[in-house]
Give the backbone structure.
Amino acid sequence: MWEGDRPSRSFVLLEGFGCTYKLTGDMPDLQSLHLKVLDNSLGTITPCQVGFIQHETLLDLCHRQPRIAAALWRETLIDASIFREWILNVGRREARSRMAHVLCELIVRLRAVGLAQDHRCKLPITQVEMADALGLSAVHVNRVLQELRGDGLIRLDGGTLTVLDWESLRQVADFDPAYLHLQRSQAAA
Amino acid sequence: MWEGDRPSRSFVLLEGFGCTYKLTGDMPDLQSLHLKVLDNSLGTITPCQVGFIQHETLLDLCHRQPRIAAALWRETLIDASIFREWILNVGRREARSRMAHVLCELIVRLRAVGLAQDHRCKLPITQVEMADALGLSAVHVNRVLQELRGDGLIRLDGGTLTVLDWESLRQVADFDPAYLHLQRSQAAA
DNA sequence: CGATGGCTTGAAATCTCTCAAAGAAAGTGG
DNA sequence: CCACTTTCTTTGAGAGATTTCAAGCCATCG
């Protein structure tokens, strides 16, 4: 799906890693429900399984089940909240901190949906893609990751991220998960 | 209003310049309607006039007038869209381009609501505040503005911004207003 | 007048990028 | 299983962008 498209249905990411930095279980394009033109492209990092739903169906559902509408609306508000944090992250933190922040977010979000145990999770992503997401050069991403590893904060092998020292990483990242708006039960780090 | 607050009503900016980079006429905290905790602080740049509305009232209104709910939802989606563009702007464009981009956005948004004529508008903002918004140092903001002026792209005096060469500024900014999701009638630049 | 806030300038320090090359790892086809 | 190709990671060094620190200027305000 590309910028400029005018989709007539929304979809849900059921399985895999998608782009625009979206994770399994997310519904990245509620956008398309109320905005006619797509203003960003969506891609996949890994092979993904997605479900589609017609806009009409969804709108009808929202109309008859205000709770659902509220939940989805809430979802878009949280997205916006996350974007705000990213603006801060990308605009004001230096590379090391920025990287740490994404990693913290990744862990917490995946834990919240049961896709990460302890402080370890899959990270099937290339350094070039990370660079892209963080607005850094791939070379610099590499060096920053080495630093983080060298300081014993994380381990990274075979597409698996392990946070060895959560508290330090959190401090480096200046990470406070409030912006993710998780339920208390999900928020435990 | 501060991070961590749990507001029971929303408000509308009726007049003035508010912070989190919001402009007159916006409704910056629909957020609070569905999310319990405020995850960002709101401030004002200039003295502002705001209207308040109880959450209950608003929810009730949405329930009885789905069109209103849809419109407000749409609003939050556009916000998210703008945030996405900002992530791009702040993360990937260098200072000169970044600055040009905000100025373009400012002009277009103010024109859309009739607050800017031609390519000129009020910009009652200090360079320090700009620096803050752009994630740059105040010193650098100053230099970039000088460049832009030196190249004859803008003029800036007494809190008034005048774009002297819109097309060039747009190019420097790599600005495409699609992400603002304006109606065609509003979008004319 | 002195104080304050905002703008401007210069110079050195820092961060990050680009370019270029080489080493690992992973996938492909024989 | 091996050669081969491709993709990803790692390294070094120089160039560029941006920051910090420090100082000076200018207007406004009490």
